[in-house]
């Protein structure tokens, strides 16, 4: 599933752990967003990361 992650947390160690777990790219835009492709089986865990306030999941049409 293609989506955009908005990074709420400023803690780089937390960002690194999330990136490593989901295999996302290490960069981000100046708007604190990263375009990613997440496997369907990982979506539930990514939603939990969002509920804890580290990220926001954004579904954008232009990917």
Automatic annotation (TrEMBL):
Domain of life: Bacteria
Organism: Paraprevotella clara YIT 11840
Name of protein: Uncharacterized protein
């Amino acid at each position: 599933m293609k989506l955009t992650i908005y990074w709420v947390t400023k803690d780089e160690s937390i960002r690194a752990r999330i990136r490593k777990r989901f295999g996302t790219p290490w960069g981000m835009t100046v708007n604190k967003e990263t375009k990613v492709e997440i496997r369907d089986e990982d979506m539930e865990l990514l939603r939990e990361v969002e509920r804890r306030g580290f990220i926001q999941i954004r579904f954008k049409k232009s990917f």
